[in-house]
TrEMBL record, chain A:
Keyword entries, A-Z: Lyase
Species for this entry: Microbaculum marinum
Stretches for region Disordered: 1-22
Gene3D superfamilies tied to this protein: 2.30.30.50, Nitrile hydratase, beta subunit
Record gene name: nthB
Protein name per the record: Nitrile hydratase subunit beta
Automatic annotation (TrEMBL), chain B:
Segments forming a coiled coil: none
Binding site for Fe(3+): C119, C122, S123, C124
Gene that encodes the chain: nthA
One Gene Ontology molecular-function label: nitrile hydratase activity
Highest taxon listed in the record's lineage: Bacteria
Signal peptide segment: none
Compositionally skewed regions (Basic and acidic residues) per UniProt: 1-23
Region (Disordered): 1-25
EC class of the enzyme, as a word: lyase
Ranges of residues in domain Nitrile hydratase alpha/Thiocyanate hydrolase gamma: 28-208
Protein's name in the database: nitrile hydratase
Keyword check for Transmembrane helix: no
Protein family membership: Belongs to the nitrile hydratase subunit alpha family.
Record keywords, A-Z: Iron, Lyase, Metal-binding
Length: 219, 224
């Protein structure tokens, strides 16, 4: 989806503003919104790609005017509703109006260290040999999927070179929509800054983007 | 639309409702509190698990982890080689692994190439070695301009590189997470790993900064 979350190459957001001695959280609600986001995926049963898709599907003006944890909050509110775990009325009221749904699993405090240490590796056994090898010339496909994708607009249609083969990973374009993992090879693709941005870019500069095989054509 | 709802939208439109804690909670803070109590009451969330998650990422996991990886790489050629071959395994040797660090790649700065990491699509960041990302990393100015104007962005961090140095930006669009290995500063021969780690700033491992010289680290009270 060509959304406002796909920001690479935009120029009108102003300077970066590093904050000296920045705290991890700026308010107590950020702590809770962060932790809630991690914890509710257990009963919710959704995956990281679905979470990302929920956030980037927010109305564009809302996305751009929200702080990052406000975006996370809006994302889980949407997912909780879609999963039928809570109703919109319950979110507004802050208390249950009906019974809880049975859920497969909830995250218990004693399981937090092991769950976070384990993480969620996305590498899967390949179903076919990788189509590309380091040094191969490729071109990012010019596609505009309506659904979730991790192919940023700023590389579409541009030539690049395979820099590295990362492995065979879950394909987010399918996984975000409940269509299974459909693993695909992922490559680090090197794009020259001049190919992406024109002659004003420094000649030696480059951008490496991690792209799944279905995003690429041989060049 | 309820009054609460209106305020919620208002809060969004003005964004960055930081620092509104105190006796009066912001509309967003109230909404988060209400959501937490709803989810706890429904039995979907264990509040002690939330406390444990916050404690982990506020107090236990942070950029000092990454600094240890860099200091080891500077000190031990065998370790550097393992980091090049399989960064996930090499980082796990020091006890750092897990969520948002499942597939790690280390990118080394050299006199010819400077590396800088971004996530243009969201906020992907190597949690086990750097902790949670700073606000600027997740914000539109950095996400948009790191790829098109990396030298301009670096200047906003006070970093100017010679035109002979090529910049390589790494956009974390997949589940691979990047750790920049900054160049070891001059005048650090014979320093212990622990002292070297004090030179390694968070920004130097994102690529928006350089490692500190021993003098700079002393000035900031990071080194004796």
């Amino acid at each position: 989806m060509n959304g406002v979350h796909d920001m690479g190459g935009m120029q009108d957001f102003g300077p970066v503003a590093p904050e000296p001695d920045e705290p991890v959280f700026h308010a107590d609600w950020e702590r809770r919104a962060f932790a809630l986001t991690l914890a509710v995926s257990a009963p919710g049963g959704w995956n990281l790609d679905m979470s990302r898709h929920a956030r980037e599907s927010l109305p564009p003006a809302l996305y751009l005017s929200s702080s990052y944890y406000q975006i996370w909050l809006a994302g889980i509110e949407r997912l909780l509703g879609e999963a039928g775990l809570v109703t919109a009325d319950e979110i507004e009221a802050g208390r249950p109006s009906g019974p809880a749904r049975p859920v497969a699993r909830i995250l218990r405090a004693e399981d937090v260290p092991a769950t976070m240490a384990k993480g969620g590796p996305v590498d899967r056994p390949p179903q076919a040999a990788a189509l590309f090898s380091p040094g191969d010339a490729v071109r990012a496909r010019n596609i505009n999927p309506q659904g979730h994708t991790r192919l940023p607009r700023y590389v579409r249609g541009h030539p690049g070179t395979i820099a590295r083969v990362h492995g065979c990973h879950i394909f987010p374009d399918a996984h975000a929509h409940g269509l299974g993992e459909r693993p695909q090879w992922v490559y680090s693709v090197r794009f020259s800054a001049r190919d992406l941005w024109g002659e004003d870019a420094a000649p030696g500069d480059s951008v490496h983007v991690d792209l799944w095989e279905p995003y690429l054509d041989p060049a | 639309m309820s009054a609460d709802h209106h305020h919620h939208d208002h809060d969004h439109l003005h964004g960055h409702a930081h620092g509104h804690e105190g006796s009066e909670l912001s509309p967003t803070a109230l909404r988060v509190r209400a959501l937490e109590s709803l989810l706890v009451e429904k039995g979907y969330v264990d509040p002690a698990a939330l406390d444990a998650l916050v404690d982990t990422y506020e107090h236990k996991v942070g950029p000092r982890n990454g600094a240890r990886v860099v200091a080891r790489a500077w000190s031990d050629p065998g370790y550097l080689e393992r980091l090049r071959t399989d960064a996930t395994a090499a980082i796990a040797e020091l006890g750092f692994a897990g969520r948002q660090g499942e597939h790690m790649v280390a990118v080394e700065n050299t006199p010819a190439t400077h590396n800088m990491v971004v996530c243009t699509l969201c906020s992907c960041y190597p949690w086990p070695v750097l902790g949670l990302p700073p606000v600027w990393y997740k914000s539109p100015p950095y996400r948009s301009r790191a790829v098109i104007d990396p030298r301009g962005v670096l200047s906003e961090f006070g970093v100017t590189l010679s035109e002979e140095v090529s910049i390589s930006v790494w956009d974390s669009t997949a589940e691979v997470r990047y750790l920049v290995i900054p160049m070891r500063p001059d005048g650090t021969e014979g320093m212990t790993e622990e002292a070297l780690a004090a030179l390694v700033t968070r920004d130097s491992m994102i690529g928006t900064g350089l490692a500190l010289s021993p003098d700079e680290a002393r000035k900031e009270g990071l080194l004796q």
